[in-house]
């Protein structure tokens, strides 16, 4: 992106942002947000309210403090005949019955080289288990999600998460909420008038019941005043026809259910417990003639609360120090914040998926194309939708050295905590090129890392979703034949770093208004660092900050800022060189932004795949 384009964006926003306390910071060549001190560590500048660039180094498996382990094989399977779903699932469940060893693992299930057919889904629901193959190339371990031309096949091939089924569904938008129990009696209000972005401490009413090492939730409420302040209770109406409508009059889920014309997803409006049926029917937003429905959902207080999981480092009087930074400011005038103890009894931890090839059938095979006719990749819909889903109630997981193709939505989506997804390749998708599809590497959890991942034909190839808590990091990633933008997609994703990410379409973090059912502000505290794209559309919401540092359309060394990677430098500063070496070799770090690893990663691919 040319410098002149940056200036136009900034000047257009300047007057509005000065009134609304928003900041969109664009810097080329040298950054004023930080400097390297005499010891070679980053030293950060702060604005008048104390906001600063957050420390993103706490993301990924065990926050980068431990290496992803190599777990011994405890069970082995050979390729079989017919549907292998139950055979693989039984082996995973048997592995899950083994005792945990002193390192917290049960062992790995090794799928020997060959082709495995899975007509259903595989679920890893036991902590301390690993699913491993013998290679991600065409001649390695290939798991095929079989089935097409029936909506029942639109599923995830592999999921990681508990079997409890205790997940609640968000009443308005249908998004799943986190699987944890907040201990209400432990609540302590944060008393600071303002807790800045990037800070690691705050004052509470009393810290008497909190100790170093405690895992806590930092709750940031979504009050009516705050939603009004950012303009998300004033989204423009969008009238449309809808389909598959039904009314449910009884029970806890009484309400109105429907589907948009462009989506298979179910949406619903629920009746309040103390609301009469007639009053509820009256507020369902149909047009006067009953033929049109307003798809736009204004943001409601309480629907956009954030729950950030953190650990206490120290307690000094009533001041609490936490490990990972605050990435969404807390202001007394907008409800402030609070901390709680919590429980997550069913959480699945220490799970890995590695060295596999995942493929989805999408239409009838033809000669040379066993998974379907390539001419149908732009319209095939009824087949496997996700390669791997790391569910909400998961932590310290990893996906590495996985190649995939033809999934409709994502190769990997990470909704849990502290996942590392690295050295993965998405060779393409099979779906329409429209909403809710082709989000190749998708994050909607917190403290997650995606690094050295490559995707072809992604629509939102490196993306965060609704209310993604952050911090989260994408580093050293490349999109080819991009179909749409990369960046936060909708409904206030906070604290995302895109570091040395290259896309063939624009990168953005902006106000999306009534897109979808009311996307509003896509994200805030978004940082594009040494990224390459033909255009950047970056704004900050009122009270927020966005950074575009060393990023542009050329990607040459003269356009980049030092250090080469903000994330890797922050890891070095906090954990030292040994931790940095676990994440990336010196050669990989030396060639950041050149993507030399791509050729090596693809050397065994057949062009026909």
Please explain how this structure is put together.
The protein is mainly β and 609 residues long. It folds into three domains: 420 residues, Pectate Lyase C-like (3 Solenoid); 92 residues; 56 residues, no CATH class. Helices cover 11% and strands 32% of the residues. The protein has eight helices and 41 strands. The strands form eight sheets. It has a seven-stranded parallel β-sheet with strand order 7-10-26-28-31-34-36. Strands 11, 12, 14, 15, 21, 22 and 24 form a seven-stranded antiparallel β-sheet that branches. It has a six-stranded parallel β-barrel with strand order 27-29-32-35-33-30. It is globular, with a radius of gyration of 24 Å. The N terminus is likely disordered.
Low-confidence stretches: 1-20, 166-177
CATH fold label of the largest domain: Pectate Lyase C-like
Fraction in beta strands: 25-35%
CATH class of the largest domain: Mainly Beta
* Strand order across the largest sheet: 7-10-26-28-31-34-36
Report Rg: 24 Å
Class derived from helix and strand content: mainly beta
Largest sheet: 7 strands, parallel
User: What is the residue-averaged pLDDT?
Assistant: 92
Distance between the termini: 33 Å
Estimate the helix proportion, in percent: 10-25%
Number of domains: 3
Number of helices: 8
Shape: globular
Which architecture of the largest domain would the CATH scheme give at its second level?
3 Solenoid
Oligomer: single chain
Q: What is the strand tally?
A: 41
């Amino acid at each position: 992106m040319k410098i002149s384009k940056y200036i136009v964006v900034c000047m257009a926003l300047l007057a509005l942002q000065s009134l609304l306390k928003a900041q969109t910071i664009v810097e080329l060549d040298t950054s004023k947000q930080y400097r390297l001190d005499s010891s070679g560590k980053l030293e950060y500048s702060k604005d008048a309210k104390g906001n600063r660039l957050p420390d993103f180094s706490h993301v990924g498996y065990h926050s980068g403090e431990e290496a992803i382990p190599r777990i011994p094989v405890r069970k082995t399977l050979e390729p079989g005949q017919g549907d292998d779903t139950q055979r693989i699932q039984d082996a995973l469940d048997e592995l899950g019955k083994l005792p945990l060893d002193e390192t917290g693992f049960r062992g790995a299930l090794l799928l020997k080289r060959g082709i495995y057919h899975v007509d259903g889904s595989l679920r890893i629901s036991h902590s301390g288990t690993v699913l491993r193959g013998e290679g991600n190339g065409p001649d390695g371990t290939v798991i095929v999600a079989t089935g097409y031309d029936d909506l029942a096949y639109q599923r995830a091939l592999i999921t990681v998460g508990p079997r409890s089924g205790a997940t609640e569904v968000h009443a308005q938008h249908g998004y799943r909420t986190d699987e944890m129990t907040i201990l209400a009696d432990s609540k302590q209000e944060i008393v600071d008038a303002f807790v800045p972005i990037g800070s690691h401490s705050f004052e509470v009413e009393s810290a008497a019941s909190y100790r170093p090492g405690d895992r806590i939730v930092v709750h940031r409420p979504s009050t009516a005043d705050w939603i009004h302040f950012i303009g998300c209770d004033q989204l423009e109406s969008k009238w449309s026809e809808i389909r598959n409508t039904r009314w449910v009059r009884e029970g806890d889920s009484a309400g109105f259910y429907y589907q948009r014309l462009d989506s298979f997803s179910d949406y619903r409006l629920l009746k309040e417990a103390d609301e009469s049926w007639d009053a509820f029917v009256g507020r369902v937003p149909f047009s006067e003639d009953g033929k049109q429905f307003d798809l736009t959902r204004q943001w409601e207080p309480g629907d956009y609360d954030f729950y950030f999981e953190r650990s206490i480092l120290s307690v000094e009087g009533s001041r609490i120090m936490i490990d990972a930074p605050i990435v969404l400011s807390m202001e007394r005038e907008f409800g402030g914040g609070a901390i709680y103890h919590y429980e997550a009894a069913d959480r699945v931890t220490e799970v890995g998926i590695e060295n596999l090839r995942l493929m989805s059938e999408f239409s009838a095979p033809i000669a040379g194309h066993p998974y379907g006719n390539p001419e149908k990749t732009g319209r095939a819909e009824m087949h496997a939708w996700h390669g791997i889903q790391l569910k909400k109630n998961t932590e310290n997981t990893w996906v590495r050295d996985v190649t995939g193709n033809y999934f409709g939505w994502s190769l990997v989506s990470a909704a849990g905590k502290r996942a590392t997804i690295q050295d993965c390749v998405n060779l393409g998708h099979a779906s329409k090129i429209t909403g809710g599809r082709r989000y190749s590497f998708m994050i909607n959890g917190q403290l997650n890392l995606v690094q050295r991942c490559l995707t072809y034909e992604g629509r939102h190839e490196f993306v965060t979703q609704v209310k993604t808590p952050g911090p989260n990091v994408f580093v050293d990633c490349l999109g080819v034949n991009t179909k749409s933008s990369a960046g936060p997609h909708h409904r206030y994703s906070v604290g995302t770093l895109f570091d040395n990410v290259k896309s063939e379409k624009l990168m953005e973090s902006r106000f999306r208004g009534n897109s979808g059912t009311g996307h509003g502000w896509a994200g805030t505290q978004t940082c594009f660092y040494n990224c390459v794209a033909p255009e950047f559309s970056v704004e900050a919401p009122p009270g927020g900050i966005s950074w575009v540092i060393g990023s542009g359309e050329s990607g040459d060394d003269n356009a980049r800022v030092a250090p080469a990677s903000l994330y890797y430098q922050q890891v070095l500063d906090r954990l030292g060189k040994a931790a940095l070496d676990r994440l990336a070799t010196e050669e990989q770090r030396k060639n950041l932004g050149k993507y030399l690893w791509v050729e090596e990663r693809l050397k065994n691919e057949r062009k026909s795949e």
